[in-house]
Design goal:
This protein is mainly α. It has eight helices and no strands. The protein has two domains: 89 residues, Rna Polymerase Sigma Factor, Chain: A; 82 residues, Orthogonal Bundle (Arc Repressor Mutant, subunit A), CATH 1.10.10.10. Helix 6 crosses helix 8.
Length: 188
Amino acid sequence: MPAITTVSDQELAMLVSRDDSRAYDALFRRHWKRIYSVARDLLKSDHLAEEAVQEVFLKVWSARAELVAIRSFENWLFIIARNHIYNTLRRKMREKSFLSMLSESFGIRQTGPEEMLQVKKRARLLDDMIRQLPPQQQVVLRMAHQADMSYEHIGEMMGISRNTVRNHLARAVQTLRFQMRKAPEDLS
């Protein structure tokens, strides 16, 4: 085999499809910087960009048997990267909107740095409170507000009725509101 650096992406992909870890490493070294750079620009986070690169190349390895049918490895790779980055952005937006909704529910107003610190403290407190909810209430709350799923879809996934989902969600929100009222003065 010629030096790995002179082999085309298509040839490396073919070798990866045969479980060649050296070829996989070569593809990684050849493309990680570009994926990282795009992910960093869009996600505004070194940590999330690093995770994106790892996830994208994990998908490459997981799909290695299918690589023989791909006409342009580079195009395919960047479609995988783009989709992963956009999904991460969507998830970040849902989490932001979830925190905003909870902030509004608990009367938190953001106007300056101190208020932002207050919001972060409350978000940590709220996250701790959510972890203390009964498991089904936690799952329903996260699916409904963070994953933006309908009651019907949640019910199907959990094997419970729509009304049970609604009841779990109502109890979870009621518990969280009660807990927030009991929070220390510096957080209320």
